[in-house]
Amino acid sequence: MPLTRLEKLLPWTGAIAGACWIGHSTLQSVTETDKPGSATSQVIRDHLLLNYASVGCLVLMGIVLLFFATAVRNLLRSTEPAEATWSSIAHGGWVVTAAGLSQMVMWNWGLIIGAAAASDDAALKSLSYVHFFGWAGMGIGLATAFIATGLGGLAGAVLPRWFAIATVGCGVLGALGNAGVPPGGLVNYVLLPFWLIGASVIMARRQRLTTRSPKHQA
């Protein structure tokens, strides 16, 4: 049975999510120094449109990650026996990651249209501490998603071995970073978008090869 247009597009939602994460990190401007609690009302107001666009990137990323979660589940499920294991765990991990992005949106709005708009510097300082570590809200889901996707990719041979092993490694580092062990937290900011883009290319290529196989066409 031929794939629908949506099924063909699903793997590429990961690349969109990666681009959104890069956009969010690039556009956001709430402080002049990269330290907890250093956000200022003046900086936020001076870059208001950029900060709005940054939050928009987070919103879009959360939405497309839910589509990407389905793409990952479909990929892993394609070689699993009757009882789905890794596909279900990976799907749940990506859903939790999207939920973590939702709370990041909340903290961002608290800064931008809450404390900064009211020039409430005391509240702004408190929110800024939480905002700085907002990525930790998606850390548990992301670590779970990486580990399950990597192990599932190895078990079913649906991902290149090197990529699956690297994915498990990212999951372990991400979990350590979320627990306060450096440099694991860098996985969330530095490696995440590139992993998402790379995974999209690999998954789309596998999907294309699978649909061309005689078994699939039959």
From TrEMBL:
The keyword ATP-binding does not apply. Keywords: Membrane, Transmembrane, Transmembrane helix. It comes from the Bacteria. The keyword Transmembrane helix applies. The chain crosses the membrane at residues 49-72, 93-117, 129-155, 162-180, 186-204. This is Integral membrane protein.
